[in-house]
């Protein structure tokens, strides 16, 4: 019930390919079921600030076993989870983090992508997640 | 005027029972009157990100001797305590943290619960607090 | 151009007296011109979470040589200093922090108070500041 | 493709001159292409709290190769990058940070300025950036 490095590297390859296809430069992070980093790639010329954001997106997605953007809908002023970002050494709650599941639907990790619009980030994360 | 481990463990037992009753999986944290952790349980399959949130809810509740949700009403934009979450290494100000009192009404600690909707979190925290 | 411990202790005495007069229990912190703590008192029964807030209010006030509440008006969503609270290891930008000045108007430190409503916090901080 | 200390010092000189011209007292920070500090100056009497803000503005600008104020437009409640400030040990997303480019348009670092209104901060940062 945990991702292997081989799987994580497949995700990185697929995410890089999608990123190139849509003409972006991404930071791509894969964490395991314990929310610890397994593999990471920063494409040449990708934003330096997206390094930490991609890792935080992957962690946030595994922390709650959902897409990061779902949490962001609840963390707004007046929302049920307002300012949840202060937990866990800083969450990132906009799109770009996606859980990874095995054939039985168990969460085995998560992938986080940052470096373009949040729509593109999510597209690339999905492409990575679909590689396994 | 401080909670004992025996009391904290009773709270955990009661909170787990209520959590099962309402079909949730919770992180449950009990802190003493110094806001330091006494007992903790993460139910199998509960969100990993709720670990830190449950502890922060318990601490936040003891820090101000009130339910965490009360603080969240004041920390919104335009509110009297806007962005108070930046203090004390990160507060969690939505429901799920409840103070613990002795027979004389003195605060002896607090319980924090995270893992479901904030309504369910609060329900389980209350069940725990009522066990002593 | 820096506060002495003797002055800081006078501020604590005056702030405690005002706090008792208005029936509150306060945390009171005095920092010097370098924003470092000089004296501190937590009145019996005062909120534990206000310890850090009182110190952060004193620091924030010295950091910008103004009352903390002024900054909070600018740090709201849409404001010029939105999310400035993320700087300096966490600012507190609601009322209760007041700069301390010498006879020539030079800032020699600041006092921060937390433990009641922000109006009461500010009242007690002012009483402290007026003691020197 | 990285700023030299000589260039950074020219930026500091130009920013100080502009700051004096518009009657302000600034903290001025220059980071390299790795977002690490190269040169810094705090003008006598400038806000102490602006020290950290100027450095965070420079880092934030290099992290995303854009003016800091652009990010702040997207990090508001409801915005695409809501609460991005929680990443990278704290971003500052209001104006005053500007990327530095070489003759070919490559980003070689960034300058961050803090100590007055955000308009003045940006004006001084621009003056610094134009010195190389």
TrEMBL record, chains A, B, C, D:
<dbReference type="Pfam" id="PF03928">
    <property type="entry name" value="HbpS-like"/>
</dbReference>
<dbReference type="InterPro" id="IPR038084">
    <property type="entry name" value="PduO/GlcC-like_sf"/>
</dbReference>
<protein>
    <submittedName>
        <fullName>Heme-binding protein</fullName>
    </submittedName>
</protein>
<dbReference type="InterPro" id="IPR052517">
    <property type="entry name" value="GlcG_carb_metab_protein"/>
</dbReference>
<dbReference type="InterPro" id="IPR005624">
    <property type="entry name" value="PduO/GlcC-like"/>
</dbReference>
């Amino acid at each position: 019930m945990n991702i292997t490095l081989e799987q994580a590297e497949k995700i990185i390859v697929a995410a890089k390919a999608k990123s190139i296809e849509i003409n972006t430069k991404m930071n791509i992070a894969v964490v395991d079921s314990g929310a610890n980093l397994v593999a990471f790639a920063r494409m040449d010329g990708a934003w330096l600030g997206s390094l930490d954001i991609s890792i935080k997106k992957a962690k946030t997605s595994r922390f709650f076993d959902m897409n990061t953007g779902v949490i962001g809908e609840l963390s707004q002023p007046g929302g049920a989870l307002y300012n949840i970002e202060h937990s866990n050494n800083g969450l990132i709650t906009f799109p770009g983090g996606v859980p990874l599941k095995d054939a039985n639907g168990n969460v085995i990790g998560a992938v986080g992508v940052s470096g373009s619009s949040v729509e593109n980030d999510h597209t690339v994360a999905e492409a990575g997640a679909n590689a396994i």
